[in-house]
């Protein structure tokens, strides 16, 4: 394997590596916060890499962006105000704004350069950036949530990098308490929660931190994500109210296109594998 | 990445590669049919590689073996006779024999060396090889099915390598016709059907070939499989009778342990992603 022809992400703790064949490196820069690289791949379109970790490709980002947004949006009874913490590639924002009920969607990513590069190399993810309901802030999401007034938001989507580096504070009990305090009564937070095959301990700690912050109901959902370690990713929804139910009819009649998500996939994603049930006493 | 420390499977057509960190190579040989390698990995236990493709690891084979067996076994109304074509590592055989209804399970792999190596390096997969209901044959599975009498078998599990090399004939309409002819009236064949992300065309051709062979009902199911390209794999069940229904109560009361599979996972696996529905007119 000629290293000049491949981008490889090694995951030392997992003992795995995933590679994409590249045509060329399109860009690299050290932002104030992270090392950012853009590649043109042979088969996955463009690829964004942050601090050596694959973040998003043209070809397969739909899994992640759809599953980080539509399941929680169709579980909340009436989502109007959404914050996206992280998510600088704007793919989650685009999916959120497909929902007619949304009145305000604020994306808060600490690193403006991620969004500026996404506008150039992933323009299809940025299609909704000029929607009048959208607002893009380039500030510290942890502080934003900490300073927010009660009942400021219905859903917080934590679309972060791994829990090392700038995103570490997004996996803490203090952060979840701050989320709890600024969410509306039936509010929810959803966060990417890594791979249940490779990071089960982390997933458990995250669930514990969410519970200890006061969230009464947790649901972990599972979906494929080729680019991420093990190819099998998860997100965890923490709800203030235990009464959250899937709005199945609305999902069945969704007035927008998706590539992966639909009402059947929604229900399927919440099925808990046997080893996950055992690990978390479900 | 030091090549001596990693085993890497490149998938040229997909532009992807997946690597596992290795401690040492335990064995290699050219059998009559294939080049076989066994590695000890850092984090995935032992790894079997056939003709350069990862086949099975100690750590994550449960996904594949459970999902190739229990969904079809709990869909068939009363499975008694099962053939496994390929499957020389014996992992599928072990799962099949967990079902009390099974009276006979015949594994037909052309390459005896796969089984002999599995007995040494994956003994846990071979635990059921001495079950009185089990029979291991090392002959050509294609010819075995072609020569079989009508109503010889209830379920045929095609646990094969990719559709190149010795397994190519296992993806042909002629093979499916031969399966159809030797299956009982409510018989089913299930076959691994690659990745819907990377091999959608192949999956479609396989479904078409199964239909043209006379199978009235097709169901593709999806599951994670870290070691296989894209980390997201599929299997397709073709039924002679359209009346096949999930025996949910039996699955809920299954008298054996699994790591991944349960009744919820069963139902979830059959959810069809939006792009798959569109591709196959579902």
Describe the structure.
2 copies of one chain form a homodimer. Chain A is α/β, with parallel strands linked by helices. The first copy, chain A, contains 10 helices and 12 strands. Chain A has 2 domains: about 5-55, Spermidine synthase, tetramerisation domain (Spermidine Synthase, Chain: A, domain 2, Roll), CATH 2.30.140; about 60-280, Vaccinia Virus protein VP39 (Rossmann fold, 3-Layer(aba) Sandwich), CATH 3.40.50. Chain A has a 7-stranded mixed sheet with strand order 8-7-6-9-10-12-11. In chain A, strand 9 (about 155-160), helix 6 (about 175-180) and strand 10 (about 185-190) form a beta-alpha-beta unit. The interface of A and B includes residues 15, 21, 42, 224 and 262 of A.
Describe this protein with a few key phrases.
homodimer; 282 residues; alpha/beta; Spermidine Synthase, Chain: A, domain 2; Rossmann fold; 2 domains; seven-stranded mixed beta sheet; five-stranded antiparallel beta sheet; 10 helices; globular
Write a compact overview of the structure shown.
2 copies of one chain form a homodimer. In chain A, 27% of the residues lie in helices and 30% in strands.
